[in-house]
Design brief:
Helix content is 79%, strand content 0%. The protein is mostly helical.
């Protein structure tokens, strides 16, 4: 039963990444606007505002948005590969299942990096 739970957890992360990345791409203008808002000074408290322009460069906004949806798609795809492999080896020995699980762990790592690095800085 633990293996099936691992597969379901990896599947949920895969779907979150893939659907989120595709959703970002299908609603590109809103995503760009959100990233621009986060990168601009309008989200900072008044005391933290340095002098200078308040709008981030378009290239920085585009790179930030590409970072988000790109890593969501890559992480989701890695997790999905892991899910398929884990399902294939669900009845196999511990070593084979652990090898299959590496893809899902890599996908989860990519997605956590995107979340922690992208939204915590």
């Amino acid at each position: 039963m633990i293996r099936q739970i691992k597969i379901l957890l990896a599947l949920s992360v895969a779907l979150w990444g893939l659907l989120g990345g595709l959703g970002n791409l299908s609603n590109y203008s809103d995503g760009m606007q959100s990233v621009e808002s986060v990168l601009s000074k309008e989200t900072l408290p008044e005391s933290a505002l340095p002098d200078g322009p308040t709008n981030p460069s378009r290239i920085l906004v585009t790179l930030g948005f590409a970072f988000i949806w790109g890593l969501k798609l890559i992480g989701g795809a890695l997790c999905l590969v892991g899910v398929i492999r884990m399902w294939k080896f669900r009845e196999s020995d511990v070593g084979d299942f652990a090898d299959a699980k590496r893809w899902a762990v890599a996908g989860c790592g990519v997605l956590l990096f995107m979340l922690f690095f992208g939204f915590s800085l």
